[in-house]
Predict the 3D structure of the following.
Amino acid sequence: VGHVATTATANPDVVDAYFWLKTPGESDGCTQVLPDDSSCPRFDSDCASADSIGSRDGEPRAPEAGQWFDYQIKQLAENAQLGMPSGTTVVTASSTVSVTQVISTTEEASTTEIAGTTVAIRSGNPFADKVFYVNPSYKTSLDSSISSASGKIKDTLESMRDIPSAYWLDNKMKIKGSSTNTMEGILEDAANKPVPELVLFIVYDLPNRDCHAKASNGEICCSYKSDGRCDYTDVSDKFCSAGLKEYEEEYIDQIAEVLRKYSGRVPVVLVIEPDSLPNLSTNQGDPRCGNSATKSAYEEGVSYAVKALASADPYAAIYLDAGHGGWLGWKDNMKDFVKTIKSLQVSSHIRGFASNVAGYQHVGEICDTYDFCLGGNNNDHPCCADPCGLIGQWNPSNNELNYALHLRKAMSEGIKDFDPHMIIDTGRNGAAGMRSQCKNWCNIRDAGVGHVATT
């Protein structure tokens, strides 16, 4: 793991927070053969890369994406860089301190008071001055690994029990219910705290989800195979009409209904559909991603999701997924991405973007300008450290902080009155240089968790 969630970022004007968005300990994808010796139906060849756990003799097989992976969480703990200097306080309900200001902001906002905390209507840093919710279900998962751990790894895992992370709404069954395995149950629990706690949800169930890979293929399709899985190459419904209807009515509208119930009562942050829009910018040559059905599903689905959820809860802060610097950081890729975002007409409804969720790189040090390192300039400067060798490929986004600068500049120049802010996922990037190729993303060997939420 890398840094834990915090608003004490390198440039608060651009980066709102570091946060664990991809839940540390949950598998990125399965090995070809599952731990129970059965064949994995969603096996992706990227999960057999030389850097992936399970590709070497003697390593355990990986379960399907989203399932708990004991071997991986112990490696993440062993290589953790939590970014917690002596005296740091993690801002959660278990903290023995009062709620204090995490970061000052000069941005004006319409606000409402809720039980001693302030909720802003989509203006200013939504993480500032908030207590962060820690899901009991994540503690339970960690406890299952703590019971068989020892030494430093056990100590780190125990410290992670009180660190907030996002909750993934990756299927319809996770929306409504009374338990803290559902969105509704989590919001009810957060609302009943002495100070209502900020909850971060990942909205992740688009039709034809994860078109370029296979590890996280979803439950809603533009066209279904006989076994119930998505037929990504069938474009008989070229506008994905049935899939979008299912997504809007059975998924997004249900989330919106729950949000309305808690609007103004619980601070909410939403990250919309990781891995989707970046694929439209860079993987048009893949027939699974570039066909009319998938393109329609992603563009229409994301636009509908943002507008419906923003309407349901005007207090919620919404961020779109923006891949990471090693994916969209090239100037041509960035131009395509700006064009895609502009076409959706959602910039007035979103706070900005989340990065490092679908694939990741190190946070690094921030430069004065996004292209400070290009052209062989300033090679010795710490902000130009380049473990993935991107600068030599004329990609200025050699780390996620420089990518944030690049994204802000490109979007603000390409879309009128839009100065986006960022959340950077630090759940898996505590270690740098552990991959033979930085394009590898699945259950990376020797990765570590990162920065936690602090005051």
